[in-house]
Amino acid sequence: MDPTHRGPEEYGHDSDGFAEEAGRRRPARDPLTPDFSQQTPQQARVVTLISGDLLLTVNPVDGSEVEPCPPGEQPSAPARRTPAERADRERAAAPPVPPGPPVPRLPLLQREDVHERLTRLLARGRSVRLTGPAGSGRTALLDAVAADCAELAPDGVVRLNGHKRTVTDILHGLFEAVHDAPLHRPDRELLRAKLRATGAVVVLDDLEFGGAALDELLGATPECAFLLAATPDVAAPGPDSHLDEVFLDGLDRAASVDLMERVVERKLTEEEANWAGDLWFESEGLPLRFVQAGALLRQRDMLTTDPTAYDEYGYLENRPVAPVTESPAADEAEDAEAAEVALPSLGEGAAPAALLASRLSGAARDALRFAVALGGEVPHQAHLPALVGDTHADAALGELAGCGLLSPAGSRYRLAAGVLAQLEAAGYGDDATDRARTVAQHYAWWAGHPSVTPARVVAEADAIVAAMAQLVPGDGAGQTSVAVLLARSASPAFAAGLHWSAWERALRIGQEAGRIAGEVAEEAYFHHELGVLALCAGNLDRARAELETSISMRGALADKSGAVAGRRALALVEDRSGGPAVSGVPAGSAPSGGAPAADLIPAYRFEASPPRGLPAAIPVSVPRPYTDEATVVARQSAPENGDEGGGRFAMLGGARRNLVAAGAGVLLAGVLGTVVTLGLTSNSDPQGDPGASTEQSVTGGGDTEDELPAEETTDGTTPSAKASGSGSASTPVTPGPSGSGSAVPGDGGSSAGATASSASAPPSTGEETPDRPSPTETASETTKPTPTRSGPSSVSPPPSPSDSTDPTPTESETAPSVPDTSDSASGPSGVTGASPSVT
């Protein structure tokens, strides 16, 4: 590129065939070597959604942005789904059908009474809690009851799963199942309003909470009838929940044997029936144990089957030919050994996972190892070929489901109850960290691809979060970096898919992984996202803390765009909270020395505390009468309970501290000057007329014709003080060389050193001029000051008409009237009147 003659290729545009540049022709890019040309950047998936009254833009590059929702983009009211839409959604949310031979559907044995009772209670609008041990057949019973209650409620039956779900997740899941509101996450008020009008039969499996959380769920949905399935270790509901309790026991011996025969698809031999009876005592009649035991017998049948039994039908004519051995005796021994496969022991029947896995294919065993590494979560069958390294590994899911090693959990599968512990004991979790790292790398590439929708990523949320949790904290090299990469790829998809509990877990794990790995930029990103999430959830204190952390870290990294995004979100937090939160003083506590926290001005309004010996002040903006500037009036708060800092306002920080310090100095100088001046003038003529008063006015350049009478108003302030701006004090003076007072110069343009004068007087510059006579030299020498009050705040009374010889125009003729706001300020030590104004 020529910097002088810039061609179109600089901006990403090339001419056809050749590009003319700098007087010469350059050949265009070769289509056979596209790698050397300008590459198209990978697109970032940016999704905009509505959260309450906020517009959230999920930006995976610099961080999500949040702003108040504009009026034109407010979402419409959520519409109820039709029965056909609910049916389509239920089919889409069902777990996928495993490939391979279909798994036989087993009937409900010895559950007729419980089935009828649950249906009857739900038809009456009652909520029921079904409690049973893991493996007792709760899921199969819920499916049967849900099919019978399809027409009971106006909103139909809603199937939800409570595995690793909070009460907030359940409420939002119920809202999404009944209402059609794409890319809209309602706030708490709208969510409660919609759920109060929802009438459905909610079938909730794998419930993991009780007590107050369960009471909140039931209280938010008064028109819904719940069928809750939980294990005995889950907390019991509250005493006011009005839930009917139904307990689910195991099967009797006859039903257990019948179930095993249906799994094996034949009658049991006498030996097998006796073994099943012993297993019934050991397993307390849990149906899952007999399904797995039946799978053991089916595998035994396959091992004892003659491979040539179906040759006459041509069923196995394409099977691989076994090598011919030279010893017929060896073949007969192998056949006899295969025919004499013994029954599993009682211990193997009670914990059959390891024995069942040993007889599966290699791909199925690898899939089990990945599931153990993920804490029991099984990846979708579409991911198994990439993880296992076998193009036919998706069929492993059918093998595992047929053996009773998997159980459905919402739209996915996970290891059945007790299988995880049995496989870990058998050594399937020895390489769990390496396999979790493989899963994390695969999901990081897959979740970040633009073609993958957020809904598909949300379906794999549990497996993704489990992979990150396995790597953090990690001792292996690069483990935490892989977790950071996965969290950075998956968390925006969780946010866009409205699965915000998984979004929060991914962000927290990613933030911890970034801290351990030393990746400050990624850690700042996770802090920013946590702040945005807290802001959308209404937790303003948490949002402020996370955003401030992110801004400081990005500022240290010179990440300008990220810092700007953080400041925008922080500004919205400040706007919604009415100002930053109180820092340094916990709510309801009192600082050392006395005053309760409720009486203190929050410390967030100021940047620093005042130093010892300086008065604390709070700014009050008051318009000045003659200029467009704003006058800052300092207000002093009295200490409470004898404490220096108790009940006082904190000091302004930065430039404001200089203004307050200047105002305090001017105030102190004015008080001292007033005391000295009154003392000197009162002692100059002790025999004077007590009714006489002093007429003093500050003029520019000694012009006595513009003097104003020092008339005192009813509130104790002179009109000149009012004319100089609300709250301005009388002119502070200091003793001169001849005993008279001289004007005290102001600080940096303040109006503390001058009162209102006539229009002809030049403006005061705030500096003392040697050629200008002092204000007391222009006073009438015939008048004798007779103070009527003692103290630094005493003001001379107005002169009588007989004593005034110089007809001076009144204040109303020379200065416009301004509102009196002098009562809003008070001086120290009980000084009444106005304090000096500070600009």
Keywords:
38% helix, five-stranded parallel sheet, disordered C terminus, disordered N terminus, four-stranded mixed sheet, 839 residues, Rossmann fold, 9% strand, alpha/beta, single chain, 27 helices
Number of helices: 27
Strand % is: 5-15%
Number of strands: 19
Quaternary form = single chain
Major sheet details: 5 strands, parallel
Measured between the Cα atoms of the first and last residue, the distance is: 56 Å
Q: What do we call the CATH homologous superfamily of the domain at 111-247?
A: P-loop containing nucleotide triphosphate hydrolases
Short summary:
This protein is an alpha/beta fold. It is built from 27 helices and 19 strands.
